[in-house]
Amino acid sequence: MPTIACIGGTTLDRRARAHSPLIMGTSNPATVSTQPGGVARNVADWLSQLGVEVALYSALGDDRAGYDLLRQLATNGVDVSGVRRSADLPTATYTAALEPDGELALGLADMEIFERLDADWCDSIAPAIEQCPIWLVDANLPRATLDYLLNTYGDNATIIADPVSVAKAERLRPYLDAVDVVLPDRKEAAVLSGLLTETPEQVAAAAAQIWDLGPGTVIVSLGADGIYLEDGTRHQAIPSIPVNQVSDVTGAGDALVAGYLYGLATDHADPVRCGLAAASLALEVNAGRLDGMTVDELMERVRSEE
Question: Which positions ≥6 away from 220 have C-beta within 8 Å?
Fold first, then answer.
C-alpha cells in the first residue's frame, strides 16, 4: 500500500517567461513552455522518483491532456486509481506570466473541474486513503470537501496541508486544527494569520498565530531567505541551502513540500532540511523540474554545510 496519499490538484501548466521586464496592457515577447503541474501531482511525482510509495487522488478531464498526465504519472510509479475523470469539464490549467528572472508576475487558473471532488468522491477514496499513514492535502479542493475529508476520515493520518495560493488559503483556515503540518508561503501566511508578514518579526508573529489555530507545526516558506519554523518549541528562522545558479523559482515551493514528506516517510532526523534540500535542487533546474533526481543527490544536498 502507498505510504503517502497526495490529495488535490493536477493541472497542465503553461509558463510564459518574458524576455524583458513585463509591461502590463500590451504584448510582451516571451518563451512559452507547457508541462505537468498542480501541488498534489507535483509532490506525488517527485516522491515516486525518490522511491516512496505514493498515490494521487485528483480530477482530470477526459481529454488528451488528462490522458498524457495520467500516463506519465503511472509510468513513474504513482498509483492513479483514485483520479476521477470528467466527461464534460477539461483538465485544469494554470498559466504563469514570469519576469525575466523567473519571478511570478501573474498566475491564471482554470480549475472548475476540482469542484467535482465532493463528499461522494471522498467516500469513494476513503478505503484507500485510510490505509495511508501520511496525507498531503492541498487547497485546490473545495472548502466543503476539505471540511468533510479532514473531519470524517483524517483522525488516524498525519496530515500535511498546502494552502496553494493567496486566493485559496482562506479555504484551509477553518480546518487548521485538523492538520498536523501546514506549509504556507509568506503571503499565504498573512491570509491564514490575518497579520502582516513583511518583516522577520511579523513572520514570527504570524507563524505563532497560525500555530495557535491548531496545527502542530507551521513552516513558512520565505523564498531565498529559507523558512520560518514554529512548532510550539522551536521558533526559528532557518536559512535556505545555497544554490549554484537559480534557473526558475517556479516549483521550488512544491519541492520543499516533497522533500519534507520524504523526510517524514523515511523517518529522517530532520525532514525540514530534506525540504530545503529539495527546494534548492529545484531552483537549479529549469521551471522547478526534478526529473531524475536521486536520493543520493538529495542526501548530498541535505549534508551540505551541516
Answer: 183, 184, 185, 186, 189, 197, 203, 206, 207, 227, 228, 229, 230
Separation between Cα atoms, residue 223 and residue 250, nearest integer Å: 11
Domain assignment present for 89: yes
Q: Which grid coordinates belong to 120? A: 461522494
Q: Sign (positive/negative) of CA torsion 21, 281, 183, 251?
A: positive
| 208 touches 197 (CB < 8 A) | no
| 3-class DSSP state of 298 | helix
d(CA 129, CA 152): 12
Q: Tell me: the pLDDT tens digits for 85-107?
A: 999 999 999 899 999 988 889 98
How far is it, in rounded angstroms, from Cα 84 to Cα 56?
Answer: 10
Q: Is residue 104 part of a domain?
A: yes
Q: Is residue 156 assigned to a domain? A: yes
Single pTM value for the model? 0.92
- Residue ranges in the chain modelled with pLDDT below 50: 287-289
User: Is 151 within a domain?
Assistant: yes
| Structural domain that includes position 87 | 1-179
Please give the tally of structural domains in the chain.
Answer: 1
CATH assignment of the domain containing 139: 3.40.1190.20
> What phi and psi, each to the nearest 5 degrees, are found at residue 183?
-125, 75
CB 144 within 8 A of CB 250: no
Please, are residues 22 and 105 in contact by the beta-carbon 8 Å criterion? Answer: yes
Give CA–CA dist 27/23, Å, rounded. 8
Read off φ and ψ for residue 111, nearest 5 degrees: -135, 35
